[in-house]
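Aim 2 progress update. The chain analyzed this quarter is reproduced below.
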Amino acid sequence: MDRIKQLYHLVDESETPLPRAWSPVDKYQYISLSQNNLRAQYKGKGQSHKDAASVRATNPIPASCGLYYFEVKIVSKGRDGYMGIGLSIQGVSTNRLPGWDKYSYGYHGDDGHSFCSSGNGKTYGPTFTTDDVIGCAVNLMDGTCYYTKNGVNLGIAFTDLPVSKPARKRIVDVKKRKANLYPTVGMQTVGEIIDANFGQAPFVYDIENDRRELVMQAVSRVDSYVIPDRHSHQSMLQKMIQSYLVHHGFSATAETFARSTGQEFTEDLVSIRNRQKIQRLVLAGRISEAIETTQRLYSGILEKDHNLLFRLKVRQFIEMIAGADSEVKNLRSPKVHGGSPSSTPLYGTSYTSPQSQSGGFLSNPGSFRRSRSRSKSPTVQQTHPSVIQSTRYANGKTEQSIAEVDGDVDMEGSQTNGQCSNGVQNGSSVLNGAGTSHTSMDVQGSAGKQLCGGTSAALEKTLTFGRELQAFSNQLKEKYGKNETNKKMIENAFSLIAYVDPWSSKAVGWQLEQSQREILGDILNSAIVENYRMPGRPPLEEALAHGCELGNLMIQSGNGIAAFLSVKGLLEQDS
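Predicted structure tokens:
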């Protein structure tokens, strides 16, 4: 567990790494480092102020910390305890104690004075000596610094600190950049030793309580902001919420919201519910039905967007492997007591892969459609929770969508730690049909799950579909050129067939997760909406995305308050 990362979870260390140790480079020669560069010891002459020595941390304090804190334990005060703890920018002389020079700040142990960019100190706090723990906190929201001693807050020591400059220099005028401050410690007499805690261990002082108070202050500033023409803004927000509900097919909720806010509801309910139906099919893994329904209700969309059609077909192959798609689900044999298929299981069975078929999806996107009869027996319908919520309780009545999906809905999750088996690599020897096409497979997966539902007929159909999918991929490549995204997509999908238990595989199991269905459902829904010249992304989602990005830009420009004002945090505060 990385305690430091937990303390500053908004910090992107790929851009602004956190201080984690003393720098073996940015120090004076009289400073000796040990214990992973967390212990600093004075090794100089110690005869006068000219023998002072300092060391800075490896990295400056990122503005995105919001509130930064580190502690220093005095292992030994040495001869005189001429020690200073504080901050400085890079370039300040390390042959001086912190606080003596411009852009340098320190609290000194021998007299308890604070030094702010000057050799003249001011009365601040008590002296400190061996075994004392001194903390230094930097509030990047208002540019102040305060110290603690043995868990007690000593009050503000410095104000108007040059807290931070942006990581991306291009977004701010060079003249307006602020300096980066580094945690700094200095010593001057023989025998002085300190240990630093940058957060790798629990602090003596409860800094998290201070952080909570700053979050409350930041939220209060937002809440107290007076919006001009509030009625106009509220009306706009209501329209954004309405468009969000319509976009995602929440028809009943959209109607109810429109009535409660006095908005005119002019949306086509049939279209909303049709999109809802398609969403349900995708979320259930019934991709062949989702494709057929889309082509029937929204003719031309998939024919025009060949990459979307390819993505859907790849997902259909994955769901056939999982046994969820109707193409293989209807081939399952009745189950006997104990859950084993009554037909001959695939385990230990040899089969011959059919030869690749001509044509493909590009010339006929509707090819390889379902040919099945619907079961008349009662079934239990499961749907995505958000869809259920959108079809219930309009005006106190339960609403039944005209686009209700019939039949069994399997939503099987994924496990971890699978193994490759069957002598098949990336599914190639099965799908290519080259050489000997007889392959023996054990298809019993995690928690009783079986490849393709556990019948040889379903597996044969899946492999046939896989070869058609490969032919479709080749057609797209010949007509439109290489597409690395599509190439990677089909390679990942074909890799599933090489695993006895793909659900448990870290390498490929993620493809069988419910989240992948949700992503595809959103993409297909957006494509349908855009076809009718509506925004492919709801304005509410755009506004939230802009809010998140503005927060990032505020952090990069050195505005510490942004560390306490994440969009997610504000929404959770109001919920």
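The first strand starts at residue 22 and ends at 27. The radius of gyration is 32 Å. These observations will guide the mutagenesis experiments scheduled for the next reporting period.
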